[in-house]
Write a structure and sequence with these properties.
By secondary structure, the protein is an alpha+beta fold. The protein is built from 3 helices and 8 strands; from the N terminus they run αβββαββαβββ. β7 and β8 form a beta hairpin. The termini are far apart.
Length: 157
């Protein structure tokens, strides 16, 4: 394995722009939850981003949906991850369930256009609206110190 020097650390405002770019263009996000007894679950789900929240969808019976809807364990809390190990975006989010017939026409159309999947009106599915509480982003060790970009739902940059 060869050693390489990492690029200089990005300033916080550039990291925020990069995060917003990923949210605007990536289609899938890793979703990590835990059951009430602590069993972890991590799956990729497609999402749409509206500038404030990420909208996901999964079957009601999946471990992810059960964990988020349980009200115990991590009920309502999820960790979302974009990128790969050399370009990480970690988002801690509070989630709320939205029935598949509970979206506005604009939200539904945006989700379908982004993901190519239309679960609207299918009772066995549930939308999950994820509101970011913290956002961290880094590429290399030299960006770890400034990785916290959002705290308590407010951008710090």
């Amino acid at each position: 394995m060869t050693h390489r020097d990492p690029a200089p650390p990005r300033p916080a405002d550039q990291r925020k722009r990069d995060v917003l770019e990923r949210l605007a263009h990536d289609v899938d996000v890793w979703v990590a939850t835990a059951s009430p007894d602590g069993v972890p679950c991590m799956v990729p789900l497609s999402f749409a981003y509206d500038g404030e929240t990420l909208l996901l969808c999964t079957r009601r019976g999946t471990p992810t949906a059960r964990n988020l809807l349980s009200g115990t364990g991590t009920g309502g809390l999820a960790r979302l991850a974009l990128g790969h190990t050399r370009d990480v975006v970690l988002i801690e989010a509070v989630t709320e369930a939205v029935a598949t017939d509970g979206l506005s026409p604009e939200e539904g159309a945006s989700f379908v256009a982004r993901t190519g999947f239309d679960p609207r009106g299918r009772a066995e599915w549930v939308f999950l609206r994820c509101r970011p509480r913290t956002v961290r982003a880094w590429r290399e060790e030299n960006e770890l110190a400034g990785r916290l970009l959002m705290r308590d739902g407010l951008w710090r940059v």
